[in-house]
Amino acid sequence: MTDRGLFEPDVLIADQFVAARRRRAALSSEKRLMLAVLENALDYYRKYIVATDRIGRSLYTEAAEWIASTSNEDIFSFENISETLDINPGYFRRGVAMWRQQLLDTHSRSAATPAVQTREPVRAAS
What we know:
The chain is an all-alpha fold. The protein has helices spanning about 10-45, 55-70, 80-85, 90-110. It contains four helices and no strands. Helix 1 (about 10-45) packs antiparallel against helix 2 (about 55-70). The protein is elongated and about 65 Å long.
């Protein structure tokens, strides 16, 4: 048997790759569904954060409460989805909170700044 050094094929790696691929294929549908739930909540959170209508406020509140919940009793809880997708829930929440604060600061500054007219008013022809 010849010594191939660093480039010798590793039989275990091939077996591990096949086993990992089987696990990934079995879980991919569930993970995709969980990712879709997370994306939907984040989308509602983002879209309706400054909503003034009842439905928009309700969707924002529901998404915010779901993200803030630390319960892991429901299979589709934020905690369980985060764990399944290898997301640190605390880190995710801090990032969402920082983004929210920046958005609200920007929104409040733009609401406090009076609108500046950019063009001269149209004058009637004499």
